[in-house]
Amino acid sequence: MKNIKQSPAGPDNSSGCLSRCRQSPVVFCRHRSLSRAGPQRSPLAEVKGNAQPKVRPPAVPSRLPLSGSRLKRGPEPMESASEPAKKRTRGLGTAPQADTLHPRAPRLSTAPQRQCQAAAQRFPRKAGPCPSATALKNQKPVPTVPAQKPAASAAPVAGGKKPGRRPAWDLKGQLCDIKVELQCSRERAQTLGRENQQLRDQLQEAQQQAQALGTERSGLEGELAQVRAQAEQGQQELGSLRARVLDLEERLGTQEGLVHVLQREQLGLQEERRTLTGRLEEQERRLQASEAALSSSQAEVASLRQETAAQAALLVERGDRLHGLEMERRRLHNQLQELKGNIRVFCRVRPVLTGEPTPPPGFLLFPPGPGGPSDLPTRLSLSRSDDRRGTLTGAPAPPTRHDFSFDRVFPPESGQDEVFEEIAMLVQSALDGYPVCIFAYGQTGSGKTFTMEGGPEGDPPMEGLIPRALRHLFTVAEEMSGQGWTYSFVASYVEIYNETVRDLLATGSRKGQGGECEIRRAGPESEELTVTNARYVPVSCEREVRALLHLAHQNRAVARTAYNERSSRSHSVFQLQISGEHAARGLQCGAPLNLVDLAGSERLDPSLALGPGERDRLRETQAINSSLSTLGLVIMALSNKEPHIPYRNSKLTYLLQNSLGGSAKMLMFVNISPLEENVSESLNSLRFASKVNQCVIGTAQANKK
Q1: CA 508, 514, 518, 519 torsion: positive or negative?
Q2: Among 36, 159, 166, 573, which residue is least crowded by beta carbons within 10 Å?
Q3: What is the DSSP letter of 461?
Q4: Which residues of this UniProt protein bind ATP (predicted)?
């Protein structure tokens, strides 16, 4: 048999496998029960055993992979029967023929034995069929090893003699042996045919069982896949349920914590409720008492309302009275200023500076007034000696004394605060609606700029008239706001240099472009004058004013002269336009405040040789003296009530014409030097101021609407 099919498991199956392993040259048996089951004999083996004599054969090594007891098999019938004939013929050269007639089964390969043993160890005994024939067919056959011929064994002969081979001449005996052997082979073929048929039946039954088991296996595999899918789905659901359980546990913990917090809050609220209940009862008692007091207070409120109405009427009446008093104050204040004069002249002598010579005694005297030393000084006496004059005896002539009288004289020791205190009432007139113009006149180095602008910044005692006047205006305007007045201030700062108007508040590329500034009327029918292309800056505090003064000081034209290292060579005009309004009464007022620092007034010396720089100073001096002369002519014309006032003869008088005549109030500071070397220029300044002081301008009128 070339292919051996597997038979189902059972007691006879093991014997069948053993028979096939003995007959087939290569057998690969994977039956699992061989290692544990006892020796079993197939029907063919039983028939053979019955045919053989009951003689123990010699021990032959087994060629089957059995882990249990060895299968015992008797000698072949042909072999035992023909043994005496073989002994008789041994040595006649017939052994090869006998060997070809009785071929030995080859020894089984050791590889199938090891495989069967390993399979028996790996797979324990189970109820089920052996591997299918398809599996055995697909396995590669193991190469066989030629089997060794076992030692010939025969039944012992009586008397201890072994049977020998038949001799070559005993042909009849050899024929008998061949017939016996043929008979045995036929019986063996019949037995093998029956065994083969039995094995075929077993194989068919095993195939049917294998098919049924395959069908069952397919169903079980489908059920297993379904169960695995269900198990996987169950695992997923279990995971989600576990996550949900964790979430619910966390939420439960949070809710429990919240419940504890709410319970504590509830306890606190209950305690607070009890407290509030007690307070409510107390408040109810107090409310009852308050209602009782309210009824009494309502009567008081009624009486207070009546008193309030009376007070309101009285307040209106007093407001009207206060307004009347304010108007009366303004009238009396203006009358007082008129009594002092609409054109007033103050003289101020600057102190001797460090490094300057001390003037001789009696050079400057300040005689007391009619009331004695207690009166404010109003007179000044200046002594002058002339070397060109002499007496008949040849002795020098006594010094000539020049006496001057002004509205007020400030000696060198007078401070800035004392000077401003004298003009504070005049600044108040500008807030009341009267045009005001204050000049600082004098030679170069006499202290004009110091009087108007002050000394170094950051030194309050050295502040000039401009910052002090604006501080006074801001303070009074704030006080007047309580009476219903609101004020606004707009500042401008220009200079007139060689009859050219320049804006001292210009910044950037407009610096020094004086040709662009012209004096024009604000409107066709307006009398107000403005400077075109000049900056008009609203101001409301001292800090803004100081910034404007600092900028103007940087832009002003100065030069070195014989009297001063840094002399102002132009007229600077600080104009502050004041506008006031009383909305409740419909009153408005407005007036300009002009604070003018005039250029130094020096006479020309025609004997001096003029270089290129001196020619520029000459032109500046001629322009300055021309404008100052025009200012004197304008003041004289106003005093004489002349029909034509030469305002247009100078840019200075043309710009200030609304603050010089008619309703204007004018004050001139004449500043002189205390040095004897400047006595000539000091006398010229004092004489010009005396002429102005003798002028009288008509009654001033406020600009009211």
Answers
A1: positive
A2: 159
A3: G
A4: 442-449
Contact between residue 665 and residue 700 where contact means Cβ atoms under 8 Å apart: yes
Token pair for 42: 């197939």
The sign of the dihedral angle between the CA atoms of 530, 534, 536, 541 is: negative
Q: What is the largest CA-CA distance in the chain?
A: 221
Mean pLDDT of the chain: 75
What are residue 548's phi and psi, to 5 degrees? -65, -40
CA distance 527 to 590: 13
Q: Assess if residue 517 is contained within a domain.
A: yes
**Does residue 425 lie within any of the structural domains?**
yes
User: Is the pLDDT at 397 greater than 90, yes or no?
Assistant: no
pLDDT of residue 557: 61
Residue with tokens 């695992």: 235
Q: Are 369 and 377 in contact (CB under 8 A)?
A: yes
Residue type, 8: P
Helix axes 416-432, 465-480, angle to 10 degrees: 50
Residue 444, annotated ligand binder? Answer: yes
| Residue 274 maps to a domain | no
Phi, psi of 288 (to 5 degrees): -60, -40
Q: What angle is formed at CA 604 by the lines to CA 603 and CA 606, rounded to 5 degrees?
A: 145
Spell out where 141-186 has E strands. none
Provide the strand spans (E) within 583-634. Answer: 587-597
- Tell which residue, 58, 108, 47, 46, has the closest CA to residue 83: 58
* CATH number of the domain that residue 625 is part of: 3.40.850.10
Token output for 379 = 């007179």
- Nearest in space to 17 (alpha carbons), one of 73, 77, 65, 76: 65
- 619-673 pLDDT, tens per residue? 888 888 889 999 989 988 888 888 899 999 999 999 998 888 777 889 999 999 9
How far is 382 from 386, CA to CA, in rounded Å? Answer: 13
Task: Find the mean pLDDT for residues 507-521.
Answer: 70
Instruction: Write the CB contacts of 344 (distance below 8 Å, at least 6 apart in sequence).
Output: 407, 408, 666, 667, 668, 693
Confidence band, pLDDT 50/70/90 cuts, at residue 337: low
What's residue 316's pLDDT? 79
What is the SS3 assignment for 422-448? HHHHHHHHHHHCCCEEEEEEECCCCCH
For residue 398, give the DSSP letter: P
- 208 assigned binding-site residue: no
> What's this model's pTM, rounded to 2 decimal places?
0.54
Q: How many structural domains comprise the chain?
A: 1
Sign, CA dihedral 368-373-374-377, equals: positive
Residue 576 neighbours by CB distance under 10 Å = 23
Most confident range (mean pLDDT) of 15-24, 458-467, 486-495 is 486-495
Q: Is 123 exposed, middle or buried (0-12, 13-18, 19+ CB in 10 A)?
A: exposed
Is 442 annotated among the ligand-binding residues?
yes
Give the pLDDT confidence score for residue 420 in this predicted structure: 93
Range of the domain at 427: 341-694
Secondary structure (DSSP) of 278-315: HHHHHHHHHHHHHHHHHHHHHHHHHHHHHHHHHHHHHH
> 3-state DSSP call for residue 559?
strand
**11-26 average pLDDT score:** 41
Residue 565 lies in a domain: yes
Residues 192, 44 contacting (CB under 8 angstroms)? yes
Alpha helix positions (H), 357-447:
416-432
Residue 38, marked binder: no
**Residue 456: C-alpha distances to residues 44, 290, 459, 507 (Å):** 147, 67, 6, 22
| CA 167, chain centre distance (Å) | 126
Q: What are phi and psi of 347, to 5 degrees?
A: -110, 130
- 288 is annotated as contributing to ligand binding: no
